[in-house]
Amino acid sequence: MQALTNRVKEVNRKPMSFMEKLYLPAIFKGMAITFSHIFKKKPTIQYPEQKREFSPVFRGLHVLNRDEEGRERCTACGLCAVACPAEAITMEAAERLPGEEHLYREEKYAARYEINMLRCIFCGLCEEACPKDAVYLSETFAPANYTRKGFVYGKEDLLIPNPKTDPQGLAEARGQHI
Ligand code: SF4
Ligand code: SF4
User: Fold this and answer.
1) Which of 146, 155, 140 is nearest to 89 (CA)?
2) Cα 79–82–88 angle (5° rounding)?
3) Domain count within the chain
4) Is the CB of residue 89 below 6 angstroms from any atom belonging to ligand 2?
5) What range defines the domain where residue 87 resides?
6) What's the pTM value of the predicted model, to 2 decimals?
7) What is the distance between the alpha carbons of residues 116 and 139, in angstroms, rounded to a whole number?
8) Which of 49, 65, 151, 176 could share a disulfide with 171, CB 3.0–4.6 Å?
9) Within a domain: residue 40?
10) Which atom number of ligand 1 is nearest to the Cα of residue 124?
């Protein structure tokens, strides 16, 4: 029969010896490898009781930042969405109304801000593009979810807790522990 490539290798159909037919040497060899691993340091950890140290350059779940007075920093300029290579960010801008100065730092704010975590590749370009220090990637990660919709994070999921009213929640959102 004509070969399709020049990488054809003839199969060795040599009859098995008596020892090979017993399979015992092969079984003992396999068991020896298994036992040799028992005394090695285990790479698995007991999550969630145990947690691994994150790398200093780890980029996790996004956080929408507030200023020191608890006002939203985002001014809905759209630079993060333009910078995003995965087109994961969607937003709608709105004008700040008189009396809302304690809620929004700038005259324009994001009435809707969504990040699709299934599209996101955690590259951090949105964080770098933001001129207002409003979005950054924290040291936590998006928890598992049962639906695709559950991975579309809205403003209520992303906004950092108010530093004035909830400092502990703020530290936890940043992946710190106080
Ligand atoms: S981390 Fe990268 S992929 Fe994810 S939202 Fe930001 S820019 Fe887009
Ligand atoms: S997060 Fe930053 S870059 Fe994105 S819309 Fe808000 S202010 Fe602009």
Assistant:
1) 155
2) 110
3) 1
4) no
5) 62-173
6) 0.74
7) 18
8) 176
9) no
10) 1
**CB-ligand 1 contact for 60 (6 Å cutoff):** no
What CATH number corresponds to the domain at position 133?
3.30.70.3270
Q: State how far the Cα of 109 lies from the Cα of 106, in Å rounded to an integer.
A: 7
CA of 57 to the centre of ligand 2 (A): 22
* Cβ-proximal residues to 171 (8 Å cutoff; 6+ apart), any chain: 177, 178
Residue matched to tokens 């985002």 = 74
Instruction: Judge whether 149 lies within some domain.
Output: yes
Q: What is the C-alpha to C-alpha distance for residues 102 and 9, in angstroms, rounded to an integer?
A: 76
Chain segment 97-142, per-residue pLDDT in tens: 999 999 999 999 999 999 999 999 999 999 999 999 999 998 887 7
Q: Is residue 111 part of a domain?
A: yes
pLDDT tens digits along 59-86: 999 999 999 899 999 999 999 999 999 9
